[in-house]
C-alpha cells in the first residue's frame, strides 16, 4: 500500500513510470557493466520493488539505471576490499523497513505480496550498504564538520527576525510524466500575473494545496516559521509581485506578497517543532485520495488521534518527527507554518499521493542531541554529494553495453 510505499521510497535513488515489455528469456543478459551482467530477471524484480515502494514514472528505465549503478557500487566496493555480512544486510533491511514502522519480516512480506523475492530486497540493500561504507571511508576526511560550523548553524536556528509576512500561494504537484508541462505552466503564471485578483483566480483553478479554497490566501505568518530561502524570496518582492517558480518537495510553488509587518520583539522564540505524518494510499490526483485525506483530518483532534486513526488503512503507518525549524523539509515547513497546535493539513508527497501532517507542538528548547544531529546531517550531506560525484565518474569510465 502507498502509505508504506511513500515512507520506503526515501531510500530509493530515483523516481520515475509503469514497466514496459519484458524479454522472453527472463534469465538472459540485458545489460553488461564492465565485467558484470544484469539479467532480465533482475530488472523485472527491481520493477516489482519499485511498484511496491510506490514509485511512479518509467519503472523499467528506472530499474535499469538503478541496477547499472548498483553494479558500479559493488565493483568499487570489491576493489576497495569491502564486504558486508548477512547479519549486516538483515540489519539494513530492518533499518529500511523502520521508515514505515515495519519490521524486516513485515517488509519482506509486503514486497512478496507484490511479487518481489526476498533475495531481490537483500540485493538492493547490499548495494546500498556497501556504497555507504565506501563513500564514508573514502570521503570522511573531506566531509568533517567543525564545532564552529555547528555553532553557526545553531545561531541561524536561534536568532531570527521578528517579522511576519502576508502572502498567497499556488502549489502544483510534480510527477515525472508531466513535469515539463507543470513547470511551463508555473513559469507562465509567474510572468503573467500582475494583480491579487489574477493570482486568486489562478489559485482556484490550478492550485492543489488546501489554500485553494481561500483563493490561495494565507494568514500572517512569522518569518521564523518559514524556510529561510523561501522567506527571503517572498520578502524581496513588492506587494503584488510573484516569485519565480519555487520547487518544494513534490510540488512547484508560486508566492505573491501581500504585506510585511514588524512584530514585537520576543526573547522566547520558537526553535523546534514536533509533528506527525500519515501517508494516504490512493491514485495520485484522484478525488478519492483527497476525500480520504480530508476525512482523516476531520476525524482527529490530537496527534494521538492521528496515530490511532492511521490504523484504518490496510497497512497502518505514521511517523513522528521532532526537528529544529531550520531542518524541517521546506514543503512541510510551509504547511506547518499555517497550523496551530493539533491542527492538521495535507501536502503532495514524492509518490504523488497525499500526506496528512499534524502539528503536535512548537517549543522554545533545542531537542536533545541537536548538536550531534546537526553534525551528522552536515556530514551526511557532504558525503552524499561527494559520493554522487564519484558515482558519476565511475559511470563515465564504465563500459556499459545493452546486447
Automatic annotation (TrEMBL):
PpiC domain mapped to chain residues: 162-259
| InterPro entries with a match to the protein in the record | OMP_Chaperone_SurA, PPIase_dom_sf, PPIase_PpiC, SurA_N, Trigger_fact/SurA_dom_sf
Xref: Pfam families: Rotamase (PF00639), SurA_N (PF09312)
Looking up PROSITE patterns in the UniProt record yields: PPIC_PPIASE_2
Q: What phylogenetic lineage does the species belong to?
A: Bacteria, Pseudomonadati, Pseudomonadota, Alphaproteobacteria, Rhodobacterales
User: What is this protein's record name?
Assistant: Parvulin-like PPIase
Biological source species? Neptunicoccus cionae
Tell me which UniProt keywords the record has, alphabetically. Answer: Chaperone, Isomerase, Periplasm, Rotamase, Signal
Which GO terms of the molecular function aspect are on file?
Answer: peptidyl-prolyl cis-trans isomerase activity
The record's listing under Gene3D superfamilies reads:
3.10.50.40, Porin chaperone SurA, peptide-binding domain
Cleavable signal peptide: 1-21
Membrane spanning stretches: none
